[in-house]
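Data availability (excerpt). The following record was deposited with the supplementary files.
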Amino acid sequence: MRTPIKHPPDPMYAEIEVHRTMIRDRVRTEAFLGAIESVVRPGDVVLDVGAGSGILSVFAARAGAARVYAVEETSIAVLAQELAAANGVEEIVHVIHGDVLDVEPPERVDVIVSEWLGGFGIDEGMLVPVIAARDRWLKPGGVMIPHSVTAWAALVHDRYLGDMVDFLRDNPYGLRLDDLVDKTVNEILYSGTFRHLAAGDLRSEPGQLWRTEADLIPLELARAPHRAETLLRVRDHGTANALALWFSAVLAPGVSLSVGPGEPATHWGMTTAPLNSPVGLTPGMSVRARVRTARARPVGTWTRWAIALPGADWEEHDEQAVWEEIDD
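Predicted structure:
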């Protein structure tokens, strides 16, 4: 996460700009539209968890759903109600302003849809409420959208990160900013819409971290930290200054979405986990990488990451430790 947010619900998702940005992201929105149209059948009952603007609820209603429960915790629920009315589905889309964990299900549903994805899948901290809603709302044999989500890592050279760290280390304005550099290389960097890594920025083959099957994962595992170690095989000579982290998802049979380097740009931009300094690489080298992501309180996640070059010790990074030091 960018910075700990101490007052739930996350106020960022009450901002109209956030929802405009997601709606304008055609890669994301058309993928979810295709999944909804392939899964929702006439007469189905649908739950939209974290409905936001309500656009996915409207898609479900247009696909033939008999009823759609659009549950949204923030005040943007007002926009969801207006969107449903403007598109003639206000009798189908029932907007519920509240926490999905507190709402009593009016009935069991055939489909749950939720755009719970962060830059590398679980890092917005929404997986737990989605799985808890599944256990309370979904009929046996019901369908989850997304169906499965896989987290990936690869060594990359992130030019934006490199320029920023170089600037901070160059004593700008005659100031020593070493402490800021230390915090910068221990915080996950989310680029947002303004930057995307190209395939040419990759320095290794991708390594799979973990795979989340939304219809199968038990709630206790969704709550637990996600951790993995993977081996990254270097492609060619060069340097890497970060791990890129991203997700690929099967939203529904035949409908997929991937936000990795070289894929079409999305509002997620790129998520990178910085290294202390660029590391030299040679073709065929195998670099160990490990990532651990755990739920933060009250929202979001904390991530640790590390790499180990052949014959070298682990280079460790921990964003939670940095922010606990600041909070103290």
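Summary of structural features: The chain has nine helices and 15 strands.
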